[in-house]
Amino acid sequence: MIDLSPVVVTGLGTVHAVGCGRRRMAAALRRSTTCWTEVDRSAGYHRREGSRLAALTAGLDLSPWLSRVAARRMSLPSKLAVAAARMALEDAGLETGEEDDESPTAVVVSNPHGPTALLEGILGQYYGEGPLAVSPALFTESVANAPAAQVAIACHARGPNLTVIQREAGALIALAQGAAEIVLGRAGRALVVVVDELTPLLHSIFDRFGGLALAGDDGREAARPFDRRRDGCMAAEGACSLVLEPEETVRERGARALARLRSSADAFDPRAPRSGWSRSPDLLAPALERYLSRTGLEPGDLDTIVSGASGSFAGDRLEARVLKSVWGERALPPILAPKAVTGEHGGGLLAALVLAAAGEPFGPTPGFSEVDPKLGITPHDGGPLGRPSTLLATSLAAGGAAAWLVVEAGEGA
Amino acid sequence: MTGVGAVSAWGWGSDALWDGLLSGHTGVREAERFDTRGQRSHLAGEVPAAPAEMASAFPGWRHYSRADRFAVAAAVEACRQAGLEAPDAAAEPLGSEIGVFFGGSTAGMAEGEEYFHRLTSGAQGPARLRLLASQQLNGPSDAVARLLGVTGPVRAFSSACAAGALAIGVALDSLRCGEVEAAIAGGADSLCRLTYSGFNALRAVDARPCRPFRQDRGGLNLGEGAGVLFLEPRSRARRRGVRVLAELMGSGASCDAHHMTAPHPRGDGAAQAMAKALRDAGVGADAIDFINAHGTGTPHNDASEWRAIEQVFGTRAPRIAVTSTKASVGHLLGSSGALEAIATIQCLVAGQVHSTPGDGEIDDSFDVDLVRGGPRRLAGPAAGGAGSPHRAISTSFGFGGANAALVFAAPRGAAVPRRPTS
């Protein structure tokens, strides 16, 4: 468990198929609006009967946050990350500029798959035309930390610069790491960014692993968190950035806190298959219990859960079993499952966590219509949530990693 | 630090690494893993074939990526040195009080390339998904956690060539704040076509064995392998009755925020990382006995690094011993900081600094005391008098301006063995 107080979130920037900016994301979550579009299948990577839809960012105008000249030198993940980071700084009422070496800005990015289009481009050059055809310009942006570096350059952030890779758990781990840089006195503020790029090749690979939702009886592909008919997640791309600052600094400059970070923990289930989830909660549930206890909380103290459940059959099953095991006979608080709206994008989870802590309303969970009797969990139905005070974010990754974070309510958006 | 494990161009195990480093030669050879025709360089620090017993010693060996194999072999060696006999998830899981913190750049990229080639060309058989099972950059750390039964935090970082050192720094934070009782920290990377051809395309590689800080240096040589440290508080090591190899005193990190590939020309970011590491360690620059430099051998990197050393060490810079492990094993990219941490520890334990292979005169714009022509015995400690431990700083600087530095100290009052392992 890492104690993250007194770090607060003061800015939120998002780039997603539902639009750019905090207000667009808040509106999509309030109205339960999904935005799936057809993935390009022309390269022939896909199975004929495979998944077809995803949340894509093509067509979004990033020019208010990124000049066309700068964008030309960047991969898509770098563009999304820089735009989201600049949005978050604007939202926090902060400017970028030369900074104090004693309290610089840390940048922590979760980038689970890296710049996949560039990797594919380089491999296409290598195998198609030979090693000499490999473009140096593509190569420099193909490294996993390119978005973190571009954010640092764009925002003059000279503090620690880390890129976290831990699949679905990476978003919460990155948030905790960013806050830890402040708590440890290494940074005066932190920019946390979660970025996902989705290419046709990556989409086809997720589909071949059996991870994506398919068209059901109703002919619709949809993410159905905790639903009896769930059969996979909806793939997604996008970026979400948060500005973290010490509460004292925020008070001094008269800004508002959207959310207050309290603590975080992560764990690992070594029995999980390399590309799947354990069936049993008997390692992760005690880990979550220990974490809450060390934070000084009982499960009943938490009034909202923001879950990483995405509609994955095995992932949601493990999430449900862990929560049921920890809460036991107690009633679970309202469970938000924002990936039903955003698709499998860790940034959607972070955005929803901050918006919920800021008191934004949430609509019913799209795609959910029938309780899975084996899970017994009904995600948020759109009823009034009240103003949450203490929220738990949870994300269980394929492969065994798990991350949790407790957040307290902010002052409102 | 109570255990280290290494896999490098010198072979499997930390003894092989130390023997290779002491030899003063380079382990970089003609690359054999894939066709390098048409490339600017044909050299690499390739890891030799694994000992035959590895396949039977590790369950699932056949399904591991090459980087996973390096990672688990190094991690098990480090655990055994730390007194954890035959660590194995089934026999005795390490549990929730231990975390795994890894940095890397390629993980299962080599296997991912094969998948892509098969998928797009139909060559070499069907594109099987198992080729991608360890493709993600968290593959090696997850493989270690799975093998050893770790249920605590498992975190992977990919911040280019600083990743391994950054991961060790995060592990140190985790220990200090009591999140874990012990940490398995380091990194693993394997050579792959993408990085080999990419660095060739950037003209950042030398066709000859690399020559850090030399006048005619022409670039780096790529390498592969793993370095893993077993870290625990001194009190825990004492309680368990295990020998402390060295002390990880502090870490520092910064970002140039300057350019995607070029380092800051004055070395400002690198100097910041070193200064922060020294501050974190609670020592001044005058307490450092030698520097294990990032020392890639590229014209810009070495120049920037020397300026950073001058900023931090001032007038003492020309008198402090500097070595580069990369000249011996190649540049392991994300895991280089982890392997170089081990080389630094080995030097501290042995009381001598390994030399930097490569011929040629020192660049006359650097007044650097590069250790050459054989290992150099450490004189009395730079600070604190005869009873004080020797201390060293190891630096790692990556693409995108990510910088990291680690400060190590030899164990207090320990007899100096020839090697850190039994």
Description:
The complex is a heterodimer of chains A (413) and B (422). Chain A folds into two domains: 7-252, Thiolase/Chalcone synthase (Peroxisomal Thiolase, Chain A, domain 1), CATH 3.40.47.10; 261-409, Thiolase/Chalcone synthase (Peroxisomal Thiolase, Chain A, domain 1), CATH 3.40.47. In chain A, 32% of the residues lie in helices and 20% in strands. Chain A has 13 helices and 15 strands. The model of chain A has no long low-confidence stretch (mean pLDDT 95). The two termini of chain A are 28 Å apart. Chain A is an alpha/beta fold and 413 residues long. In chain A, strands 1, 2, 3, 6, 7, 8, 10, 11, 12, 13, 14 and 15 form a twelve-stranded mixed beta sheet that branches. A three-stranded mixed beta sheet of chain A has the order 4-5-9, with no helix packed on it. In chain A, helix 1 (22-31) packs across helix 13 (346-357). Chain B has one domain (3-409): Thiolase/Chalcone synthase (Peroxisomal Thiolase, Chain A, domain 1). Chain B has helices at residues 14-23, 53-57, 66-81, 109-121, 139-148, 163-176, 193-201, 234-240, 268-281, 299-313, 326-329, 336-350, and strands at residues 3-8, 11-12, 29-30, 43-44, 98-103, 154-157, 182-189, 225-231, 247-255, 290-292, 321-323, 352-353, 369-370, 376-377, 391-397, 402-409. In chain B, helix 3 (66-81) crosses helix 5, helix 6 crosses helix 12 (336-350) and helix 9 packs across helix 10. With 422 residues, chain B is of the alpha/beta class. Chain B contains twelve helices and 16 strands. The interface between A and B is large, with 75 and 74 residues. Strand 7 of chain A pairs antiparallel with strand 6 (154-157) of chain B.
